[in-house]
Amino acid sequence: MKTNTINRFLHRYFNPILFAALIAGFFIPGGERVPPQVLLVVLGSMIFASSFRIDLTEIRRFNVPQIGIFWMARFLLLPGLLFFITAWLYRPLAPAILLFALMPAGVVSPGVSSMYKGNTSLSIFIVIVSSILAPFVVPPVLSLLLSQQVVVETRGIFQTLMVTVFIPLALHLPFRRSERFSRWMNDHDALFVVPAICILVILVISKQADYILGHALQSVVYLLVAMVVFLVFFFFGWLAPAGSAMPNRISFAFGSGVNNTALGIVIGFLYFGPEVSVFLVATEPAWVTGIVVFKSFLEFRNAATPSDSPA
């Protein structure tokens, strides 16, 4: 089977493949014995492969102050607000919500934004900014807000973010000089990204399978909570740049809503208890629901106001 055919297959059937990985995690033996470092290598490889979608020449076209304000609101203020609301409602879940909300924009968000006629270049820049700043923001925020609740290994989290986000982004740069290789990676990203996501999900679930099965009702509740939080992310991104052109609002929405859940899963597993890990695992199927709901919202809005539809 040719690589193009496999790539198209992975793109087309990503949702059922992800669901199969979720199920497989409960039945594949030995996953709990896989060293945690494997998770870091898999995640770093996924971000390296996805980085070839980034076009660095587009940066000069952006409204940098607007993006800066959006980043502060979405990746600093909103996580803090959600943390205090969750701590008031159900304190044990607050660390998971905070970690989830602090994760940078996912490397798949530009592709999803492009599918729905957003400003792909803007989406790419949001990924770059949020990913590069994450190692310098996530550890101190976690340490500040969680110091009274859990022992936060800020040095370990910082190193994890550097290894899985910043270093892969930097390492891919020399390979971009080969136009042929860069184009091939850009066109065949699913060959690397989809298997990597599936491996992460299988390994994390297999390591937490006993806890999940022993707390089935709690796991279902966490899935529902994750869906609600995703919708908050999407519509925050949609409303934050009020007055912007439609493609930009779409990109802000996906930059906010499609965050790096895989990175959150790895950090949750390495540095937090099973309750946090289970919630982060629940975000994997929940983000699919968030995309579907927001897509339906865009279709409804465009049908109601055809003149606003992006070209």
Q: Are there runs of 5+ residues with pLDDT below 50, and where?
A: 307-311
Succession of helices and strands: HHHHHHHHHHHHHH
Q: Write down the overall geometry.
A: globular
Protein structure class: mainly alpha
How far apart the termini lie comes to: 36 Å
Beta-strand fraction estimate: under 5%
Number of strands: 0
Level-1 CATH class name:
Mainly Alpha
Q: What percent of residues adopt helix (DSSP H or I)?
A: over 70%
Quote the CATH topology. Answer: Na+/H+ antiporter like fold
Q: Radius of gyration, Cα only, in angstroms?
A: 19 Å
User: Helix segment count?
Assistant: 14
Summarize model confidence as the mean pLDDT.
Answer: 79
| Tally of domains | 1
CATH architecture: Up-down Bundle
Biggest sheet layout: none
Walkthrough of the structure:
This protein has 311 residues and is mainly alpha-helical. It has a single domain (35-303), classed as Na+/H+ antiporter like fold (Up-down Bundle), CATH 1.20.1530.20. 77% of the residues lie in helices and 0% in strands. The longest helix is centred in the last third of the chain and has 31 residues, at 274-304.
Q: Helices, strands, pairings?
A:
Blueprint: H1 3-12, H2 14-24, H3 36-50, H4 64-90, H5 94-102, H6 109-115, H7 120-146, H8 154-175, H9 179-187, H10 190-214, H11 216-239, H12 246-257, H13 261-271, H14 274-304
Characteristic key phrases:
single chain, 311 residues, mainly alpha, Na+/H+ antiporter like fold, 14 helices, disordered C terminus
